[in-house]
Amino acid sequence: MASTQKQKKAAPARAKVRPAGFPTRQQVMDFITESDTPAGKREIAKAFGLKGQEKIALKALLKDMADEGLLDIGPARAFHKMGGVPKVTVLRIVDVDDTTLIATPERWEAEGQPAPRIRVVERGKRGALTIGDRILARTEEAGKGWLAHPMKKLAKSTEMLLGVVEEMADGKLWLRPVDKRIRKDTPISDIGTAKKGDLVLAEPTGRPPRISARVTDILGDPFAPRSFSLIAIHKHGIPHVFPEAVEEEAVTASKLPLHEDKREDLRHLPIVAIDPVDARDHDDAVWAAPDEDPANEGGFKAIVAIADVSYYVRPGSALDREARKRGNSVYFPDLVVPMLPHQLSSDMCSLRAGQDRAAMACHLVIDAQGKVKSFRFSRAIIRVAAVLAYENAQAAIDGEQDNELLEPALKPLWACWALLRKAREKRDPLALDLPERRVVLDEWGKIVSVAVRERLDAHMLIEDYMIAANVAAAKALEAKKAPVMYRVHETPGRDKLVALKEYLATFDIDFALGQVIRPSTFNQLIKKVGESEEKEQIMTQILRSQTQAYYAPQNMGHFGLALGSYAHFTSPIRRYADLLVHRALVGAYDLELPAPKDRAIPDRSSLSQEDYENMGRVGEMISGHERRAMEAERETIDRYVAAFLSAHVGDVVKARITGVQNFGFFATVEGLGGDGLVPVSTLGAEHFFFDEAGKALQGVESGDRYTVGQRLELRLAEADPINGALRFELPDNPSPRGSPLKRDRTRPKIHRGRPTNIRHIGSSRGKHKKR
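^ that's the sequence the OP posted. Answer follows.
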């Protein structure tokens, strides 16, 4: 009887005649699908007549198919087609629920059933995964849902492609990527309703080397206003649409009473907000006056008033979950992707002039040497006297512009800042005064200019008041042994310091590695350089030697600011870390206000138990979101710069070399920015040495040397606004090639390996150093 049953079960597998030779993936899938029971490697090999080396190849194929989520590896190493969630499968992280990452199967074959939302359980160091990542994971059912245990992070090879549809002379359609790091276009196999010139999202189909693109979403005209920002938003997966429930909760929260009788009333003080002229929200305001206490002669009292966002965005609310998912606001030249909905970010939590606003006030007492003698925090109600642009505040202080707040507000602020500046100079934090680009647009969103932001005393004044408040917040929480989300900036690592030493040696500047490294160590280097041409490039290299700042509940100090304890407190509208610090202060100093009558809003505004337990996880997550935002903002400015320069292709411009590699050097147009490549193949027929330590290319015969920081004139050969890429040539080269928007795909392919006229020196592979 048992024998008969076995024959019955095996019959479907022999029902079809299989082709001879090694099977395709689809043939393997068909065999497993038609089999009544899970088929093992032995059964599959037998069905296709595989022997010897073919069995080894089959084993590798089945492993690949399991890794890709096509197959589930069941008991006794048997396989069955994915239906439900395989035990081991590929997942894509799509969301964050509080602190838990949510993933869905990359391939989902169950018709009529939505893909399950699987909770990802991270072990060890967290924060390495974020939305958009692909993981190979082991899954298990838990209660009514599923859990995923990551096994390894996979390459983002099947990410959606973002690009512009191009039509070639032969009528074929190609997808030109918006990411300048991707050097090849992809043929389009399914255009859908998109047309030439559209900015689209597409999914890759096929297998290497025959990958093509299937258009899934049309984003519109890549040159329309705001498109450059939309490119960055889609490329980096930045959440930019608020769920309806979050919007509704924001409206409800914005109507909460201020509880004027429970707050410290500071409306009689001439508090002012000083912000960029194009600021979209105002979350900080300042006030100062001479201290009347005889014991603090020559000292000042100051208040740094910050929007009381924790009153409106409470732990466990829909607003809180969405803010945590975003981590921070993202600022583009033409739009802002806020952390909080409009009702809060640019209305009730924005400190508008002449309107009563809820604030968290940091009260500082500063002595004549600029040291903060004491501090306290209160929940207050304020009425900002004026919102001033940095330029206007500076003009009033300089006597170039009349302002009724000059005597009551601005002069005391500047006098108090003179003391804070004393303390700053004594601390001697890292002083890297590098230019910051600002893109100026007209009312239609078209670029007018790209300028370097002017650095005014007004900027430094606000910066020093904010730093003082941030230090006070960290120390206030430490005093209560309360949890702190620190802003951490660690001392530079030895590897980066060794690289900096080698670089400085090319300028005959000595840098001793045995010394204790402090910010003042780098400041002394900058002073040695003085106002020489190399100053900016050396400051850039010093900046590159620094570690990346991050958020964590463990205090490692802030190296750059030369501070032992530092936490972000001053921008809770746009940074989730600041919101957590506010909540911690509310709990530590018993600043809770009466619970809302609306049951839809959580009772407490202080740090929750979940906040406390997940501080480390949240710190890693929002640090990642911050890096994502910085990259998206930088890329968008590069696109605007390329758009601005596209009208100047063929012109000779003044440039400065910003980076050197074995394949050429990168240069930026002075005063504008936007890095462009000068390929080594365009430097002439002679051989060039790549001096890795000196960050230079040097001609063997001519001795011509191209090094980081060098100023020279270059011809702009290409400016591609879509991906923000520029290409330069030496002025005495033949006339530049046309814009990449009009490329001729019949040109010979460019070899992307190391150029034939390059010899590498200064690498770890058999170092051949030339001085």
